[in-house]
# Entry
Amino acid sequence: MTVSPQKNLPQFLITHPTDLSKLLVGYSCLLREFNLSSFNYKEIVAQTFKQDKRNFGLLVCACYSNSGDQVAIVNNLKELVLPRSGVKVCFSKDNKSILVADKAGHVINYCIEKTEITQKILVDTLSTITDMYLSVSNYLAVCDREGRIRVSFFPNAYHILSYCIGHEGAVTCLSFTSSGLRLFSGSNDGTVKLWDPTNGKELFSLEPFSTVHKHKVCDLQCSASQHVCVCYEGLSVAEVYKYSLTTEGLETLVCNMFMCVTLILNIFQLHVQSINTNSEVLQTVFDVENTLYILERCPPYITSYQFLEGFFSESSSEYLATDCYLSDLQ
Amino acid sequence: MSLPQKRFFRQRAHSNPLADHSLEFPSCPSKMDWSEHFPLFFTKLGERFNDEENSMKTKKKVEFADVGCGYGGLLGSFCEVQVTVPRADINFKVGLADTFPEVLSLGLELRAKVADYAHKKILALREQNKSTGKYQNISIVRANAMKYLPYFFEKGQLKKIFFLFPDPHFKKSKHKWRIISPHLLSDYAYFLAVGGLLYTVTDVAELYEWEIKHLSEHPLFMRISNESLKGDATVDLILNSSEESKKVTRQGGDNKMGEIYYVSLFLFALVVF
# Structure
């Protein structure tokens, strides 16, 4: 039985938590770990995958464990590695359990310490989960299609810390800052909001493209250097913002009307850099050294940007991610 | 204004709580315009009361929530229907409106016609009692309590939350529609202040077992025995004033009253972790 060559395009990017030279690129049907220093890649296949690679199914998401030696993969066939129609996966801090958020609104905790995997439902929102984030401060944030963001403790997720309510459309992406004390969220209503997860207060709201047409935020990510990169659905530009938090005056927040270029509030200071790409930006991700990777829909697919002298400038990455054909696998 | 009649508000008994009903809800609790519900206690959003005494009122918040309030029996019953009160030493008061006149109580109901009926009833009661100013502290909102509670209430806002005669949803595939479930309990615990009380009553034994099981297993709730609540006005209200309880009384007969009702009460306790 011949397999017609299917275009296998990069769908998502994951950076390694400690090793700068490794980058995980997920295609529709396979997962490759790129070694940036030696310019080659290695394919990752889970032990329990069936022999026939054509039944791999479509990859949905993956993540590194915090030590970087394990990778969790979720695909759309329910019987494989993690049997859930998963949306997002992440490891807990101690690497002893994997959290999977699925389309039915559950967050399942798979305990992988022993060979026998035990599972427990941690959270059951009643609508589709769109993103999930576990912060270093052990807060679990889950956002859903209704526009709610539920921040709870982990592992005792029955204790809800706050509900961050304010978005008027589905919340599509979440990112805690590196300290775990602030939460960014992007939504289909075109806004990016900053929250204090301990009390659910909305600290700041940004809506850069409100004039003509509302653009849905499709991905955002915070870096360890206090930058946040936001990409919008259908737009070939990624916006990078820098924020700084002063330690005083957090309770007496005053929010004014904003302009898209430079804003100075008594708490935040934002600089905007727009990065233009050739085609629609799908995803952005930072690595530990604040190199920014942007995944776009058309070649060259992945470009990386180093942070030098206050700006992100492009560095060459031609060897990464060309589209590959399914027949390559045989 | 005359009280509405139920025969003009017929509605199917069940309603899918997971469906996307066309419900209205504020974008966040602070943006909710409570003056539509409690006109004597709130001004329109953004305005302020002029005098000192009234400005204290705007600091009030809804403290009692009746989830699945149905026709509004618990909030404020009809005045002309008299229910036999088993003990003569209690002054019979009409629902939450009368028993707790200083507290704002809100009913939440998903079914459109039922919510409409209850809303019209409250408006009629207010109109009829203009001289005494009663029934200004109760209201109903058509909302889905399973999904949209965070849009109405803030953390720790509620002091009491009522689940009176909830739909049992017997089939296993419908268990996820039950209003008491482990994950919804985490939500209710969030909206209840520490020390707040959760009341349930049902006449279905299986549902009672289910509720007790999940409430007892939930780390944030602690059971209070029914004995220690004898004489609590709220328990009497629950047993006597909601429409369902009256129906059960009619059908069951007085001598079976003790067996029909299962009341359970849980306290939202402090968590130490």
